[in-house]
Design brief:
Oligomer: single chain
Radius of gyration: 24 Å
Shape: elongated
Largest sheet: none
Strand content: under 5%
Protein name: Sigma factor
Order of helices and strands: HHHHHHH
Low-confidence stretches: none
Number of strands: 0
Amino acid sequence: MKPIVMKLMKQIRIRTWKIEDYLQEGMIILHLLLEEQNDGQKLHTKFKVKYHQRLIDELRRSYAKKRSHDHFIGLDVYECSDWINSGDTSPDNEVVFNHLLAEVYEGLSAHYQDLLLRQMRGEELTRMQRYRLREKIKAILFSEDEE
């Protein structure tokens, strides 16, 4: 059954899966087929079909997750300014915030870094500048680069 798994792994590539994930899923499907079927007739064909269907289902599920991130409604800083300025922060929240801020800052171009600093100082930005900065930040925070 391993050659089937390896061949389908090359045909249907799931970005978040490693070789071990493909092999483990193959073992699970083989185990389920052996439990439900006593005779070894056409086990090879049934495994191939069921494993192929499982990979396609997983691929569709991953695309659905990706689409859900595309429609994500982000946190608007202007709507939550009272909560942000309240000062009720714990040390772990500060660490997470500082890490995310550094990650966002490094991912921005020099122009957008300047806009971010101006925004954090409380300077007035135009509506278009705020929109473009917000979109750049969302692109950095919700990118699919992490595998």
